[in-house]
Amino acid sequence: MEASPRIVLQEGEIPAIHQQGDYAIVAITKHGVELARRLQSVFSHSDLYYMSKFERGDEASKGIQLFEGSVRLLFPALFPAYKGLIIIISLGAVIRMIAPLLEDKKKDPGIVVIDDKGEHVISVLSGHLGGANELTREVAAAMGARPVITTASDVQKTIAVDLFGRRFGWTWESAEKLTPVSASVVNEEQVAVVQESGEPGWWLHDTPLPPNIRTYGSVAEALAIEPAPQAALVVTHRKLRAEEEARLLANGVLYRPKVLALGIGCNRGTSAEEIEAVIAETLDELQFSVRSVKAVCTIDLKKDEAGLLAVVHKHGWAFVTYTPEELNTVSVESPSDTVFKFTGAYGVSEPAAKLYSGAAELALVKKKSGNVTISVAVIPFAAAGGAGGSAATAAAAAGGGAADGRR
């Protein structure tokens, strides 16, 4: 059998590792290696590391990496390389070994520990932002073990403020109030969830909302409530007015759902700088946040437009194109014979925004600025993430992969 290369661990040196998956499994005992090998066989996207004295001869063919020396010296290489670490070592030992490596819950990988008999899978570190809680559940299910999760929002089946809407791509405007708002949620203080836009399916538990959490369909509705809630989670694409911020965000978190579709037409060769300036100016006029942009939509003649591609790549937006025939299925306020002459479509920005968003009406029908024409749609709740042209092409702005399930 082919010999597997060894990782020789030495003090003061970060070892070279070969990363292939998103997660690393580490074991140092006979029983731990048995568990680790079983887990890797069913848990995709994982790399396995264990001590060379437990070598079986098939490690090279399975991509298993053997190491010699103190396992403590392996973690400085694993920490920045993987999304999560699954460690089959005693909890106390793991804590002592990883303590010097900890930076911040926004940066540290999720850490999951399994006991040597595989009875308990424990979420240790970065339960929410690092994904350790979710990883714990997945690993426990794969092994038939018991998941051990101690974060208050999970055990109480309430809102995890730092994960709220993350599966939809929502982002928070500022992390400053995450901790105090989380405290209000788990301490059962009165909390308002104010949602003006975005996907509605954010409640994932199989129980009703806790009685301390009330939902509102607008900021105005929430502000009319007396007494005022002690904390707020606000979901909107709007830029809040100063009074709204003062009253709701004193102990609140503002989330930006991805609900804005920008229909854009431009002259050939228009620079990225001009396109980006028109987008920024337009959103500012509408008092919409650029963080809520989901996609840029246009005609397929512009699928290779360098300026457009540069802008969507910079921001990580979906880039979606439609054929002239698809664009012509949508009625527009001012059909243009000139545009039809050159493109085969009676409009570009307006019908593109409507097709992508599924919205009957646009927040901005059409605006011409220099070499750029722009329309803005707000994706309705029911249509968020679901509507799109049947034969339109889509490419992810960052990296050129599939955009978001739309074509």
From TrEMBL:
Q: Name one Pfam family in it.
A: CbiG_C
Ranges for the Cobalamin synthesis G N-terminal domain? Answer: 76-154
Q: What's any GO biological process attached to this entry? A: cobalamin biosynthetic process
Q: Which Gene3D superfamilies match?
A: 3.40.50.11220, CobE/GbiG C-terminal domain (3.30.420.180)
Keyword ATP-binding among UniProt keywords: no
Which stretches are transmembrane? Answer: 81-99
User: Source organism's superkingdom?
Assistant: Bacteria
* Domain CobE/GbiG C-terminal: residue ranges: 260-377
| Entry keywords, A to Z | Membrane, Transmembrane, Transmembrane helix
Q: Which residues form the Cobalamin biosynthesis central region domain?
A: 159-257
What PANTHER family does the entry give? COBALT-PRECORRIN-5A HYDROLASE
* The protein, known as: Cobalamin biosynthesis protein CbiG
Question: What is the originating organism of this protein?
Answer: Paenibacillus rigui
